[in-house]
Structure formats: structure tokens, C-alpha cells
Design goal:
The longest helix has 21 residues. The relative contact order is 0.16. The protein has two domains: 164 residues, Rossmann fold, CATH 3.40.50.1000; 77 residues, DNA polymerase, domain 1, CATH 1.10.150. 41% of the residues lie in helices and 11% in strands. A seven-stranded mixed beta sheet has the order 3-2-1-4-5-6-7, with helices on both faces. The model has no long low-confidence stretch (mean pLDDT 95). Helix 6 links the parallel strand 2 and strand 3. The chain is globular. The chain has 255 residues and is of the alpha/beta class. The chain is built from nine helices and seven strands; from the N terminus they run βαααααβαβαβαβββα.
């Protein structure tokens, strides 16, 4: 029986609710900066989140929602520059402290470190977004808590492809049965499960109604003492919060 050695953690929607009040706002600010009259409201952005990756999301929006858009000759460069502007805007929001961690995240990360669990970030967002979020919520030293930050375009296939998780397993030199993934979306679940990794889901407003078939457990949050999680699917063996002891049991659970 394998021992739990590492936690592989998604960022957007999992560590913090970054999508609605972070990335969406930053995209709209980037559109204004570029002189575009595009506006991604809350509902539309929920639809766009079916596509992983900011640049991929922009291309999908142009293709599906803006068929009459007078595309520049070099659409790839246009999208890259628009995304760079969006990233700058997003980092500014983080510096303002506008995006807090989700309940239980700080507690679990500190306990994981104290008990010797290895930590890795596994995400489609850019490395700059990751380090800025960690720095603004946990302090700049927290970047060093993570042995690996697998982010952005480090692999060719973004979630739901399993590439990023295969990359993490290889670079951590562990096998799938020695770790757990923490995700918030169906694309994240498909990515982790595609690499054979057991996955805990914490939903948010955008992902609550997605299909999480195959998840080890689906919760509304990680929970805090006095404010336990709500179980949406799966068994938890009487647990009230996600801690290292619970995760270790979950890896081998047959509840």
C-alpha cells in the first residue's frame, strides 16, 4: 500500500476564487486598454471556462462569439499581446489584495509542510499569476513551499489533457498512487484522472453543476474548524475538514 507523499494542487478556483472577480475583470480591463468593446459578464465567462488557458479562451471567444471581428493579419500575436495585458491587469488586482484564499487552504498547506508532505502546483495559468497569488495571500516566502510549479505553457496539451500531471509526476519522481490532486473543475478532474491520480474536488459557483464522475470526493470547500465542509458526492468517513489525516485515508479509502 502506497504512502501519501505529495499533494498536486490546482490554482484558479481551487486555491482562490480567482476566475469571476480576478481573471474575468482583468480580461475586460485588457479589452478596454486595446480599444475593444468586448465585455465578459459573469454568465458568459462561465461558458468560456469550458476552455482551459487564457490564450485558448480568447481564441475560442473570437471564433464562436465574434465571427464578424476584423481579425489582424497575425492573430496569434494579437492574442498573445492581449493576454499579456490581461496578466498585467490581473497582477495589479492581486497587489490590491482583491483575491483571498478559499477556506481551509492556508491551514492545509501549513499542516502539509509540517508533516513533510511534498507540495506542487499543477495549473494552466501563467507562472507569474501563480507566484503573485501566493505572494499576496501567503507571503513571498510561500513560493518556496512548493517543490514544483508546473504552470502555463510548460506542456503542449492543457487540461483536460493529462500532460501537466504526467509532467509533475515525472519531475517529482513519484507514481500516481503516491499523491492526490486537488481540483475544482471537470477539466481538472479529467486531467488528473487521465494521469491515474485520485482527485478531491472543491467546487465553486462556476463549477458546482459540472460532472465530477470519477472524483474521490466532491466538497464545497476544504473546511475550517467550526465551519466544516459540505459533502456533495462521495464518502468522508465522518471527517469535517480536509486535513492530512483525512487525505491519507482518502488515498486508500473504500468507503
Amino acid at each position: 500500500m502506497s504512502t501519501l507523499k505529495a499533494l498536486l494542487i490546482d490554482v484558479d478556483g481551487t486555491i482562490a476564487d480567482t476566475e469571476r472577480d480576478g481573471h474575468r475583470v482583468a480580461f475586460n480591463q485588457a479589452f478596454t486598454d486595446a480599444g475593444l468593446d468586448w465585455d465578459w459578464d459573469v454568465a458568459l465567462y462561465g461558458q468560456l471556462l469550458t476552455v482551459s488557458g487564457g490564450k485558448e479562451r480568447l481564441r475560442y471567444f473570437i471564433e464562436e462569439w465574434k465571427p464578424d471581428f476584423d481579425e489582424p493579419e497575425d492573430l496569434d500575436s494579437f492574442i498573445r499581446e492581449l493576454h499579456r495585458t490581461k496578466t498585467r491587469r490581473y497582477l495589479a488586482l492581486l497587489k490590491q489584495g482583491a483575491i483571498p484564499l478559499r477556506p481551509g487552504v492556508k491551514r492545509l498547506l501549513k499542516e502539509a509542510r509540517a508533516t513533510g508532505l511534498r507540495l506542487a502546483i499543477v495549473t494552466t495559468t501563467t507562472p507569474a499569476n501563480v507566484t503573485a497569488l501566493l505572494g499576496s495571500t501567503l507571503g513571498v516566502d510561500s513560493i518556496g513551499w512548493f517543490e514544483l510549479i508546473a504552470a502555463g505553457d510548460i506542456v503542449p496539451g492543457k487540461k483536460p489533457a493529462p500532460d501537466i500531471y504526467h509532467y509533475a509526476l515525472e519531475h517529482l519522481d513519484i507514481v500516481a498512487t503516491e499523491c492526490l490532486a486537488l481540483e475544482d473543475s471537470d477539466n481538472g478532474l479529467l486531467s488528473a484522472r487521465g494521469a491515474g491520480i485520485k482527485t478531491l474536488i472543491t467546487v465553486n459557483d462556476y463549477t458546482r453543476r459540472q460532472d465530477f464522475s470519477g472524483a474521490a470526493v466532491v466538497l464545497d470547500q476544504l473546511g475550517e474548524p467550526g465551519m466544516g465542509f459540505e459533502v456533495l458526492a462521495g464518502e468522508v468517513g465522518g471527517a469535517k475538514v480536509v486535513d492530512v489525516a483525512f487525505l491519507s485515508r482518502l488515498l486508500h479509502a473504500s468507503w
